[in-house]
Task: inverse folding
């Protein structure tokens, strides 16, 4: 009985051949209709490119890109700022973390057109010339990296915490701050390190303060 169920009958062959012949006969007509609609402007392949302007690492940049392009693709493929890494490409690992108007953002989850007029900072713009950001310097000192794929995003998240604490310190009469382990863990809660360098990352961040 199993062999009968798996056997292809003559009727099945004829039915399949007939369907293929029918589709083959109408395909040219469907293609002609589609071309006619495109020519008349009734149908389009998709939205055309638009001009997007934003400030990247202190420099005003303009791009002509399709609306579907993510900020990550714009940074890596159009502006060649490849320090921002593509790993999961779905907002779950944090490797593509950048700052948009001073706030951390997963670049793979944001359309470039939504960054219109914004100030964007990537890992390439974190240092001040040859002078590294304190978090970058601490990561090197504490050997807080292995494969390096998560490192740019991890540094951006940690540096954002550092900068926020600096602002809070300047806006109050509080004593020079020290980051707590809980604050560091919360700051990098959206960043994954598959190499497991978390203890070194914690050491790097906890050693930075004013």
Result:
């Amino acid at each position: 009985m199993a062999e009968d169920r798996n056997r292809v009958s003559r009727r099945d062959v004829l039915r399949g051949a007939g369907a293929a012949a029918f589709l083959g006969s109408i395909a040219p007509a469907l293609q002609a209709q589609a071309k006619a609609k495109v020519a008349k402007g009734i149908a389009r392949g998709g939205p055309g490119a638009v001009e997007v302007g934003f400030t990247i690492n202190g420099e005003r940049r303009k791009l002509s890109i399709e609306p579907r392009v993510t900020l990550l693709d714009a940074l890596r493929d159009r502006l060649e700022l490849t320090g921002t890494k593509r790993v999961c490409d779905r907002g779950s690992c944090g490797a593509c973390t950048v700052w948009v108007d001073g706030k951390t953002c997963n670049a793979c989850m944001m359309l470039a057109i939504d960054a219109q007029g914004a100030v964007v900072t990537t890992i390439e713009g974190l240092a001040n010339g040859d002078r590294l950001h304190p978090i970058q310097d601490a990561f090197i000192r504490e050997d807080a990296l292995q494969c390096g794929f998560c490192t740019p995003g991890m540094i951006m998240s940690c540096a954002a915490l550092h900068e926020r604490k600096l602002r809070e310190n300047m806006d109050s009469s509080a004593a020079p701050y020290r980051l707590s382990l809980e604050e560091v863990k919360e700051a990098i809660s959206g960043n994954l390190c598959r190499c497991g360098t978390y203890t070194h990352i914690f050491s790097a961040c906890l050693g930075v303060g004013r």
